[in-house]
Amino acid sequence: MLRVARDAVFISDSNIYGQGGRVAKLFKRMLARAHLLRSVNWVRRGGHNWYYSPGDGIGYSYSVYDSIPQLRKCCASIVVIPTHPLGMTGSSPLSESPHCLVSAFKTALTTPPQAVDR
């Protein structure tokens, strides 16, 4: 996407770091920072990185946040928007929203994005 996009890239997908209970969210973030999350999932899943759920079939653990380092290399501005209501704690989308939209713009935004009143 980064190679062919002229102005911007938009990724709307799940955020594994915002899924599960409070303790599970914390452990996932800690394991990811230590670069151990993939290895732990591989062991938990019997020697493979994918998982199966009856509703969705085969899937892989992913967070839109995992794509941000690559987006930073090619884009001047990145905006993360939670697409699921945040919890009562008022925390960041990383720790609360199970789904987010990442908007990466190749040129810098001249004005910050404004909230739209409905």
Describe the structure.
The chain is α+β, with helices and mostly antiparallel strands and 118 residues long. It has helices spanning 22-33, 37-44, 68-74, 93-96, and strands at residues 8-14, 50-53, 57-60, 77-82, 99-105. The chain contains four helices and five strands, in the order βααββαβαβ. It starts with 7 loop residues before the first strand and ends in a 13-residue tail after the last strand. It has one domain (8-105).
Question: How do you describe this structure in short?
Answer:
By secondary structure, the protein is of the alpha+beta class. Helix content is 26%, strand content 24%.
How are the SSEs placed, and which strands pair?
Layout: E1 8-14, H1 22-33, H2 37-44, E2 50-53, E3 57-60, H3 68-74, E4 77-82, H4 93-96, E5 99-105
Antiparallel strand pairs: 1-5, 2-3, 4-5
Task: Please tag this protein with its features.
118 residues, alpha+beta, three-stranded antiparallel sheet, two-stranded antiparallel sheet, 5 strands, 26% helix
- Overall mean pLDDT stands at 85
Number of domains: 1
**How large a portion of the residues is in β-strands, by DSSP E?**
15-25%
Q: Number of DSSP helices?
A: 4
Question: What overall form do the CA principal axes indicate?
Answer: globular
